[in-house]
Each structure stands twice: as C-alpha cells, then as structure tokens.
C-alpha cells in the first residue's frame, strides 16, 4: 500500500494541539501571524523609530573615509574604529576605490589586506611597549583550565580540524621565515 | 579604558584604549555592564570576515548605563540603564522607515549589502563594539531602549541579538499550525529558534547538531527532538525517514559560515577563506525540507560566494527567507513572552567571564570547551 508522500494526506502528528499546549509553555501564543512582530516584512512607520530628522546630520569626516562605490556618497554616520594605515591601508583603499561589492576582487583584496595588517601589526608590536604575547592572546591556557581534552571526547566532528587551527595561524610565519632564510642564504653565498 | 582588541586570526587581548567620544550630535556613550560573545564573533575571530582590522574592539551584544549624550539626544539621559540592539541604524532611511532596521542605508559607508553592526568589521561600518568598558552608540534616540525594571542584565543582553535573532528566524520560517520544523545548530540562536517555533504553533521541532551537550540543552530548554548528525551516515536521508519521507515543512539554518559536517566545505571556508561560508547546514536544509517548503536563514555568512546547492532549492520550489534581525521590532512581543514565563533567556548562559580574561573566553567558545553554550563578558566597571 503506497504511503506518504506518494498519497495526498499529511501524516498525523504524535501530539494534538491540546497536548502540545499542555506540554510546551506558550505553545501557539504567536499562532496568528498578526501577533508576529516581523510580519509583514515591510511596514511603513517612520514615526515609531524615534528619528527626529528626515536625513541625519552629517558626522565630521576627519580623514578621507573609504566607502563602497555602490554608495552615492559617504553615509552621514560611520564608524571610526581603525583608520587604514600602512601597506594594508593602501590595499584597502584601492579595493574600495576600484571594485564594487559585486566583484570577488573587492573581497579577496580586503582579505589579503587583513593578512598584511596582521603581519604589520605583529612586526610593529615588537617595537612597542606592549608586544604581542601569543600564549595570552590565543587563550590557549584555557585548554588546561577548562577541560581541553575531556571536552573533545565523544562524537563531535570538529576535533578532526582543530589541529589545523595552529597551522593556519602559524603557516604564514613559517612560510615567511623560510623565504627569508632562503634569501639570506642566497645573498650570503653570492658574497662569498 | 580597558577594551578587548583583535590582534589577528585566533588572537585577541585586553588593553588600554581611548574612551570613545561623541562624534555626532545624536551619539551616546554607554558604560558597558554586560556583554556577550556571539557565535558570529567567531567568524571575525577566525579571520573570515573581510576588512576585520587589527585593533578593532568586537562585541555587538551589550547593555549598560548611559554615561554621556550628544546635544540632539532627547530620549536618553546619563544614568539610564539601556539595552542596545546589535543594529546601528538611523530610523529614517528608506529601509528603516519600513521596519528593516538591519538594512539601514545611512550607517555603513563600507557596504550597501549590509547595515551597521557594532564591533563587526569595517564591512559592517567600522564601529567599535561593546566588549569594553565604554562604547559609542550612534542614533541614541533610535536604537537603545531603557531596560525594564523587572529585567536583569543577563536577560537583557541576550535580547540585543541572540534571542531576538532566534525568534526572528522562527518567524522567517512562516510556521503554520502543526508544521514540522527542523533547526540546524544547537547554539544559542538555534536553541532560541527551536523554542520560538513552538510559540508559532509547530507540531514537531527537531534540532540537529554534533555536540551532545548542546543537543541535551535543546531537549531540556527547547523541548526538541534531537539528532547528532555524526551518528548518521547521511543526516538528510535520516530526516526523510523520520518524516515519512516527506521532509520537514520548515528548515532553519542557525549555523552559518563555519558549519561542520563536510570537511571540504569547512576547510575551504573557515580555514582557507575561499568561500564566504561553509554552506553545509544550508545545503542540508535545502535537501531535508519538503518540496514547496520554507527555509529560514539567519546564520551569518560572509560576503563572498559559497557553494550552495541552488539547483535543488529551485527544483523543489522552496521559499528562502533571510535577513539580519531587526532587533528592536522583536522586543515588545519578546518582553510579553518573558513576563508570561514562556522564555527565560539566561537559561542558556554557561559562562560569565571577566573582560580581562576575554582571550580565554574566545578560545573556550571557539573550541567548544567546558560545555560552553553562551559566554557573557563582565567588564571591570560593571
């Protein structure tokens, strides 16, 4: 005898609405879509937002603020967390100036700039009063204080790739060290 | 002030940083009393989100006390206890006027596809976040709301994103009475989405993850039927088997960019950053929902492309509903549900960690150590 879904009716639920209402606190409280705050998706009501402007006053632009070329102009308000600096800043500015958000090049350049930024900051910290401390900054001590080994027992699948994390973090440095070593060795040999 | 600062992938620290200042007449400066680490902060922490700059302070889930206000602020005053939605938004652009607060067009010069989010890279506007003693809150008359007197900081901070997003995700599923709802991911947002699905009249709620301790929470907190995908050769086939081969009516992706379950997808996205996100949960959602069903996505993905099984989605006639949550829209109804005892947000909090130990907090949450589900950050000035 053919069964669902090869026949029209939906299978019956194990529990009736009354049983669900008795078991689950609040079951069906939002059954009516009218009670759901995200319905309908768009609801024109500018008067309820608290805004007392049609277009906000402009925040002062203290340095040339990078922006998507898909914007008509610089938005009136923006974050000022980390102005672009160094080589990473050059890459970021180029990416914003040249490519729209629709282009993979835009995002790949920004990701590349992130890696350059990390390298610049790591090197810069060596000459600062607050140098990087890889043990403290990776929080790896919690492996010993918060059950690092026993937490990974059982079926969890992410333990397979956890060993990759230190590789991902260290690989650029190992590669850069290798390249630097080869360059120094080549220069030294030429001088001999 | 003391603030969490990003130092590159997998590295954060707490250091002295200038206290933020009023940069716009409608800014407020808020002294943070409670913050949280969100699962989506881990995408930044792992270096996946483009334009995440060294020196940025993360944190889009925070509450606090107003310390200073700009000259045009009318609705708040110093000393007010406030909860701040993770969305930075103006309240007056085309999108805000229609309630799409997460899609504001006036706050993020860096991208048009996403609105402004505190502490969430320059791709989301370049705003420092709330894992610090103080934070700048733009449009103080629009986003923040006084915390109701009956609500404590732990519950309030969860309303600034995790609970609101989970509740919103269930709404995106367009759940009808008796629907079978499958939620991928038993993290904070997945737990809240599963719990919310019942409020909308779901007949059966199923939660999928690979962490047994989180699935136990899904069973106890969200009354859900749970399955550990690591125990099945093919979780999609299993979903078909347990739904009479029909599939679920609604599938909710509460995982996002770092989904496990397919090593190639995970490594290419989370480790090698060659995709905007690992779409394992999304692909499972597409394949395990019934034809004509609905998929809700509020798991966060990066702006790059991802290897999504779009052909199956098209051929099955699925409805894909997505967005970042417009948080403040959810609050009045969520307040009612909390007061009625239907939801207790802080039931999922597992760790309260001082700001000074934020690096350990990130590692514990990232590596899922110590039964971690939701870590809160307690600043020194709290």
Automatic annotation (TrEMBL), chain A:
Q: Which domain of life is it from?
A: Bacteria
Q: Which UniProt keywords apply?
A: Membrane, Transmembrane, Transmembrane helix
Any transmembrane segments, and where?
166-184
Origin species: Micromonospora tulbaghiae
Tell me what this protein is called: Uncharacterized protein
UniProtKB/TrEMBL annotation, chain B:
Q: What GO molecular functions are on record for this protein?
A: oxidoreductase activity; zinc ion binding
Keyword Zinc assigned to the entry: answer is: yes
One Pfam assignment? ADH_N
CDD domains xrefs: FDH_like_1
Please indicate if the UniProt record lists Oxidoreductase as a keyword. Answer: yes
Its cofactor is: Zn(2+)
What are the record keywords, sorted? Metal-binding, Oxidoreductase, Zinc
Every Alcohol dehydrogenase-like N-terminal domain range: 25-144
Looking at the record, the residues that make up the Alcohol dehydrogenase-like C-terminal domain are 188-260
- Belongs to which family? Belongs to the zinc-containing alcohol dehydrogenase family.
Protein's name in the database:
Glutathione-dependent formaldehyde dehydrogenase
